[in-house]
Amino acid sequence: MGNPRDNFSPVYDVVGIGFGPANLALAIALEEHNDSAPRDQAVTALFLERQPSFGWHRGMLIDGATMQVSFLKDLATLRNPTSRFGFVPYLHARGRLVDFINHKILYPTREEFHDYLEWAAAGVDHLVSYSSEVTEVRAAGDLLEVVVQGPGGSTVHRARNVVVACGLRPRMPDGVKPGANVWHSSELLTRLAGRTADARRFVVVGAGQSAAEAAEYLHRTYPQAEVQAVFARYGYSPADDSPYANRVFDPEAVDVYYDADQDAKDRLMAYHRNTNYAVVDLDLIEELYRRAYQEKVRGQARLHIRGVSEVTDVRDEGTGVTLRIRSQATGTEETVTADAAVFATGYDEQDPVPLLGPLAPYVSRDTAGRLRIGRDYRLSLDGPGDAGIYVQGGTEHTHGITSSLLSMVAVRSGEILRSVLEHRDAAKDRDDTALALEGAAHD
Ligand SMILES: Cc1cc2nc3c(=O)[nH]c(=O)nc-3n(C[C@H](O)[C@H](O)[C@H](O)COP(=O)(O)OP(=O)(O)OC[C@H]3O[C@@H](n4cnc5c(N)ncnc54)[C@H](O)[C@@H]3O)c2cc1C
Question: Which residue has the higher pLDDT, 115 or 194?
Answer without folding.
Answer: 115
